[in-house]
Amino acid sequence: MRAYHDLGGLPGGPIDRTEHDAALWEKRVHAMVGLLSEQKLITSDEMRHGIETLGEAEYERLSYYERWIESVARVLVQRGVLTTDELGRKLTEVEAREVEAREP
């Protein structure tokens, strides 16, 4: 049975081959995954498993690097490197900084 993320061999329409300038946060996610891998804190198999088990709705909703960061977070919590409380506090901090940056 084919999983929702397995599109191999299916018609997908035209491929957009234009270059995409990665946003700063996307570059940071890519670098972070490389560092975590180098430090043996995450493997490519764990990354793939995390992405492939997001669920169809989340997989479709998230962008490429959003899937990566979701997978990283799940693996680091599973391994005990981070807690969900730590992640929640950091997200709250980042959101507050963004709100402050937008205020006149």
Keywords:
single chain; 104 residues; mainly alpha; Cyclin A, domain 1; 5 helices; globular
Shape summary: globular
What's the CATH architecture?
A: Orthogonal Bundle
What's the structural domain tally? 1
Strand content: under 5%
Low-confidence stretches: none
Largest sheet: none
* CATH class type: Mainly Alpha
What is the CATH superfamily? Nitrile hydratase, beta subunit
Count of DSSP helices? Answer: 5
CATH topology: Cyclin A, domain 1
What string, H for helix and E for strand, traces the elements in order? HHHHH
- Beta-strand segment tally: 0
Helix content: 55-70%
Question: What's the alpha carbon Rg, rounded to whole Å?
Answer: 16 Å
The separation of the N and C termini measures 54 Å
What's the mean pLDDT score? Answer: 89
Question: Which structural class is indicated by helix and strand composition?
Answer: mainly alpha
List the helices and strands and how they pair.
Blueprint: H1 24-38, H2 44-52, H3 56-61, H4 64-78, H5 84-102
Helix pairs in contact: 1-4, 2-4
What features would you describe in this structure?
With 104 residues, the protein is mainly α. It has one domain (24-102): Orthogonal Bundle (Cyclin A, domain 1). Helices cover 62% and strands 0% of the residues. The chain is built from five helices and no strands. It has helices at 24-38, 44-52, 56-61, 64-78, 84-102. The longest helix has 19 residues, at 84-102.
